[in-house]
Amino acid sequence: MSAAPIVYHNGKFVTQAEATLPLEDRGVLFGQSAYEVVRFYDGQAFALTEHLERFEHSLSVVGIPRVNELDELGALSTQLLERNQLANATVYWHVTRGAAPRSLALAAAASPTPNVFAMAYPQPKLDPMVSPASMRMMTIEDLRWGRCDAKSTMLLPAVLAREEAEANGFAGAILWRHDKAGRVVTESTQANVLFWLDDALRSHPRNEHILAGVSLTLLLELAKRRGLPVVEQAVAVSDLPRAAEIMLSGTSTHVAAVVEVDGRAVGNGTVGPITEALHADLLGEIRRRCAH
Ligand SMILES: Cc1ncc(COP(=O)(O)O)c(C=O)c1O
Which residues belong to the active site? Predict the structure, then answer.
């Protein structure tokens, strides 16, 4: 990657220093913005349609009108990668509501133009032989807002939880919320959480409490194809010690094994067979779709 990374900013490719946002941008002032992350393998986007659909959903949840970039997100991302001489990378897209005089509710007559920008981050080339990453996680209460199904940039509670986890020597936090039944796991600070518990693959229902991961959705499908029982039902925090395997899934994470939670080993503390199998299935799907 060149010394000065090139970014996309409102229709132009410029250096990052040249791309600025107005102080009164509603994304800056209120976090009224949404983002999406698409991964490219040897120049090929993985699950672009699914990411686009979720981006549209996130933008509508946070009250941002549709932007033209959505129609050419793939082509613009490819140009961004070319300008940065990258083939294996994540492309981060961010749309803010735009700038208007500071007022919690946008004045009815105001129609600011959304600000759109994208940045590319290099990632390792896909290695089909790599094992799932092993992660030690801690549990932290999920204090995020009530619409976690939107990839909103209102990430402060996630940032604070991740910082607390890392300060305690963990790779991240498994978040929980209060349910009628007690504390249940939602997802993690950086990815979705799946459990192999009581001979079924379990994860929180894809509702407003979690981000419907593109990877999670695909993994549940791949698991069904393997004949594994799949149950979309929240898992109680008190059941964590009974889980034979716990895994994380995400565009950046792929499938990772959670080998320890709050200082207690998960299963025998190593990468389990279901995690290995689903990790291999996901990598296989990426290679099939991105022609590796
Ligand atoms: C909170 C959260 N949940 C889940 C995911 C996984 O989503 P995807 O598989 O679409 O990357 C992410 C990814 O960044 C995330 O930040």
Answer: 151
Query: Which domains are present in the chain?
Result: 6-122 (3.30.470.10), 134-289 (3.20.10.10)
pTM for the full predicted model: 0.93
Alpha-carbon span 125 to 226, nearest angstrom: 27
Count of Cβ atoms closer than 10 Å to residue 113 Cβ:
12
| Contact yes or no for 175/187 (Cβ under 8 A) | yes
Angle between helices 273-289 and 214-225 (to 10 degrees): 110
Residue burial 57-85, b: 16+ Cβ < 10 Å; e: rest: ebbeebebeebebbeebbebbbebbeebe
Please list every protein residue whose CB sits less than 6 Å from any atom of ligand 1: 37, 187, 190-192, 211, 213-216, 249-251
In the structure, what pLDDT confidence band is assigned to residue 1 with cuts at 50, 70 and 90? Answer: very low
Looking at every residue in the chain, the average pLDDT score rounds to 96
Cβ(48)–Cβ(38) below 8 Å? yes
Q: How many CB atoms lie within 10 A of CB 190?
A: 18
pLDDT in tens, 271-282: 999 999 999 999
